[in-house]
Amino acid sequence: MVIRKHAAGALLTAALSSVIWAAPAPEATAATAPAAAAAEECGVRADGRLYCRNTPNVTLSYDASYQTAETGVLTSSFSWFQCWVEGGPHAGGNNIWYLAAGDEAVPPYRGWGFLPAVHVSTPHDPAPGLRECTSADYELIGP
User: Fold this and answer.
1) Are strands 58-61 and 70-74 parallel, antiparallel or unpaired?
2) What is the sign of the dihedral through the CA atoms of 72, 80, 143 and 126?
3) What pLDDT sits at residue 41?
4) Residue 130 has what DSSP assignment?
């Protein structure tokens, strides 16, 4: 009888331990919440840049047109954008293009370039609060 009680107690302890260890820690769940919220965000932050979801693996262009050199590739699906310009029409039904720092450069360029607004998940183009590009922004692109 004593052996049965000890065996039952050991089994109960083992079962409870596995439940406690299998449950996710509250801190882990709380830590992923801000990351998920940031990924859903699309807006201009205090640094003046637009942070938003975008189509991954998009080619960046030297100018706001499909007829210019490829300068880089934006491989990520959530990025920041420096500014906007009016350029050639695209499938988004407008002529707004955003300047981004690409994840990959196409030599001899630095990886910066323009992508059409159709690839940025903005509710309105140009994104409210984002500034229009200046000549200084074009210097980021390279030769």
Assistant:
1) antiparallel
2) positive
3) 85
4) P
- Reference 91, options 72, 68, 71, 115; nearest CA is 115
The answer to whether the peptide bond before residue 24 is cis (omega within 30 degrees of 0) is no
Q: Is it the case that residue 3 has pLDDT exceeding 80?
A: no
CB-based contacts of 32, cutoff 8 Å, min separation 6: none
Task: Tell me whether the omega of the peptide bond preceding residue 126 falls within 30 degrees of 0, making it cis.
Answer: yes
Contact status, residue 54 vs residue 73, Cβ threshold 8 Å: no
* Structural Rg of the chain based on CA atoms: 25
Q: In Å, how far are 14, 20, 21, 23, 53 from 17, measured between CA atoms?
A: 5, 5, 6, 10, 41
Give tens-digit pLDDT for 44-101: 999 999 999 999 999 999 999 999 999 999 999 999 999 999 999 999 999 999 999 9
Query: In the beta sheet, which residues pair with residue 120?
Result: 54
Query: Strand, helix or coil at 90?
Result: coil
Query: Could you tell me which residues are beta bridge partners of residue 87?
Result: none
Q: Which residue type, as a one-letter code, is found at position 124?
A: H
| Residue carrying structure tokens 């210097």 | 139
Sign of CA dihedral 50, 48, 125, 83: negative
